[in-house]
Amino acid sequence: MTQQPIAFYYGDGELDRLSRFDKVVLQADFYRREELDLLRERGVQTLGYLSLTEDVGPEAPWQRPERNPDWGGSFVHTGDPRWVAHVVDQARRAIAGGFSGLFLDTLNIEFNYPEDLPHLLYLIAAIREEARPEYLLANRGFGLLPQLADLVDGILFESFSARWVDTGSYAPWPDDVLEVHAEVAERLLGLDIDVYALDYAEDEELTEYAYRRAREFGMLCFVSDRVLSRI
């Protein structure tokens, strides 16, 4: 059976279905070492989820008072040495626990906290050096380009063509946003990295639209629901 390029799944189990993919992004705490080893034996590269600018844990000194309105996590002072140590420790434990690599999320801080961009690049470099993952996949992080491309192996364009909306439904982006995304995609494809797309859809028509548009830009695509519960 031909392997599919990538999947994003934030549930647990489903090892047989995950085995159909070259790479899978998983929640780091949801899988035991023997499960990850089984996937590796089947030729699957497992990437553990890691948030770099938001903290869903208990109150901590590195947290800002503001929270992400969609997911509830606290924004952090990315350059706080205690946060850096905390994230690097998470990265080390994920790799020691059997993950091949890491998926770096919450990198889009250029509009809210642009002063933290240099700190974020430092944090990514520290993860690369200290945890030594086989593969680093960054989610967006366009405000970090072009330096980001020297630190990671791939970049994901989340919600490239389709998105979830406040009503809980799914829709393509309007034309003006699609044009901006196309410009960013062209820039990404000029870099020496892998480029992926992740889109959100429920019906077959929107799903096929997302896959088709990703192919037009030479991007490998995966389509799921808002909470990534579908393989």
Automatic annotation (TrEMBL):
Transmembrane region positions? none
InterPro entries linked: Aldolase_TIM, GH
Q: What is this protein called?
A: Glycoside-hydrolase family GH114 TIM-barrel domain-containing protein
